[in-house]
Amino acid sequence: KPAVIGLTGGIGSGKSTVAKMFGALGVHWVDADIVAREVVEPGSPALARIAEHFGDHILQPDGNLDRAALRTIVFRDANEREWLEALLHPTIRDELARQLQPDHYDLPYVLLVSPLLLETDQHTLATSAIVVDVPVETQIDRTMSRDDNDREQVERIIAAQMPREHRLSRADYVIRNDQPLAEVEKQVQELHKQLLDSCRG
Ligand code: ATP
Q1: C-beta 13 within 6 A of ligand 1
Q2: Is the CB of 20 under 6 A from ligand 1?
Q3: Is the same domain home to 75 and 160?
Q4: Could you tell me if 166 and 195 lie in one domain?
Q5: What pTM was computed for the model?
Q6: Which domain holds residue 66?
Q7: Beta bridge partners of 88
Q8: Is 169 annotated as a binding residue?
Q9: Tens of pLDDT along 130-175?
Q10: How many Å apart are CA 17 and CA 90, to the nearest integer?
């Protein structure tokens, strides 16, 4: 079984960008944001539980989860938020564990890409963690230009996430993403070699 290496970083730090660079080297990766959406797709047991708990108005006419409505509820009510997390976190974790073990795979490691790797028990799925790091100012600039958000909104999201220094203190490996993409690619290639060696044991 391949080792699972976590890859995390704050909003707009470059997790997806770096994951794609590993992907180009043949590394399999699973995106926790995508899995978090998959587990509440129409027909899923988790979505049925959510509709049962909150009522059918939490569904859109097409049967998909009304995420905005759900966000509003759990933002206002900590108990509902806890209920939802108690349902979803184990479900997401199990699905991540499943997708992280592909049937046919040659490399000794796979990547779990997640903004909440260190904040949730997702880190228990991984043997070590890569942190994609940029200065906060870069994070703000890139997120603003990508999402068309205003500065205050982005600063609020960053303030709600783990502070940069805390995240870095929990890193086994760091990719510095305040550089041109070609330089970042070199770091990724270097780390890939290191991981191939250490995961082959
Ligand atoms: P989120 O947590 O918000 O999903 P993320 O950590 O996955 O974000 P990306 O989407 O990979 O971050 O990167 C954020 C933005 O910054 C994107 O528009 C991306 O193209 C750009 N970007 C990433 N790395 C670099 C770089 N080294 N130089 C310039 N732009 C970059």
Answers
A1: yes
A2: no
A3: no
A4: yes
A5: 0.93
A6: 41-101
A7: none
A8: no
A9: 999 999 999 999 999 998 889 999 999 999 999 999 999 999 999 9
A10: 27
